[in-house]
Write a structure and sequence with these properties.
single chain, 318 residues, alpha+beta, five-stranded mixed sheet, 7 helices
Length: 318
């Protein structure tokens, strides 16, 4: 094979490679902007408020539990910059080259006309047509196309806008609380407001002899970290003396007693200073006798006469 033939083949191969590979036509860079907030937890603590006095004189107490957090809040403005380009596709040269030639001729003509019109033609006619035409005539590059453009992330810039401290105090809502009474530990739950409704005559304490226990130990702990709080609540000597008797007055079978014994139970609870428990028992008795109007009427009259309590069936107003 002659040297001339070899040179021709090499030139043809180089042109073919250029035609297949081509170059991407770069478009103006695009940027995106957004705000980002970072919250860093600095402190997390729990707080038990047992209320006053610190010693129980009544069997019921509402205990408030709060969760407190301190955050460092930083606000940033984030800018992402993208390099945009039109990827090269060789087959598009079949129509871009002739269109490019037309665009160049039209652009040259527009510039000549623009001189006569004292520069009144828009740039799309005088500049954009020529730019489009030369890009179309270039066999190694496609013309710009926003419709099929692609992009790559070029850089990310972050600018700090603000830095501050935030504090929150939220109820320990519907979470467990450990209550230790003597050698037994009971798990109770707070309500949605973070209130623990402690009642020594109800729940797990009803089956335990509290009369010999002088103090309750309360504790809460977050399993996700080391946040923990402990508190103690004393039980007065006078309350301990009342609890055992009150337990019998409330929980012994009511149906085996007559109206005088029922009234005695309510009256005795009131005398012990347990007015809330007396009212609850009174309402339970009224509910118990609702289906027997005569018996209920006898109960209400006896409560008024022997215990000085004015009671009524709340169901009568329905």
């Amino acid at each position: 094979m002659s040297k001339r033939s070899s040179h021709r083949l090499a030139g043809a191969a180089l042109c073919g490679a250029l035609f297949v590979s081509g170059c991407a036509n770069h478009l103006p860079q695009r940027s995106e902007h957004e705000e980002r907030v970072e919250r860093k937890l600095l402190n997390h603590s729990l707080q038990i408020d047992v209320g006053d006095p610190q010693v129980l004189e009544l069997p019921q107490r509402r205990i408030r539990i709060n969760e407190q957090k301190t955050f460092e809040v930083t606000e940033f403005e984030v800018s992402r910059h993208y390099d945009r380009y039109t990827p090269y596709q060789p087959w598009r040269e079949l129509y871009e080259v002739p269109l490019g030639a037309v665009a160049v001729v039209a652009g040259v003509g527009a510039n000549v006309l623009n001189v006569a019109l004292l520069g009144s033609l828009p740039d799309t006619a005088t500049k954009d047509w020529i730019s489009y035409g030369f890009a179309g005539l270039n066999p190694a590059m496609n013309v710009e196309s926003n419709g099929r453009s692609e992009q790559n992330l070029a850089s990310i810039d972050e600018k700090q806008l603000d830095k501050r401290m935030e504090y929150s105090s939220l109820p320990w809502a519907e979470r467990p609380v450990q209550v230790k009474a003597g050698n037994k530990t009971h798990e109770l739950l707070t309500d949605r407001n973070g209130i623990l409704r402690l009642n020594l005559l109800d729940g797990p304490f009803a089956d335990q002899d509290i009369s010999r226990i002088g103090q309750l130990q309360l504790s809460v702990e977050d399993p996700l970290d080391t946040a923990r709080a402990d508190a103690s609540l004393g039980i007065s000597h006078s309350l301990r003396g009342k609890l055992q008797e009150a337990h019998g007055l409330i929980f012994e079978d009511l149906e085996d007693d007559e109206v005088p014994q029922w009234v005695h139970r309510v009256k005795r609870l009131s005398e012990l200073g347990l007015e809330e428990e007396a009212s609850e028992l009174e309402q339970s008795l009224i509910e118990l006798t609702r289906n027997d109007p005569e018996l209920q009427q006898e109960l209400l009259q006896s409560l008024m006469k022997d215990a000085g309590r004015l009671a009524a069936d709340p169901g009568e107003s329905d």
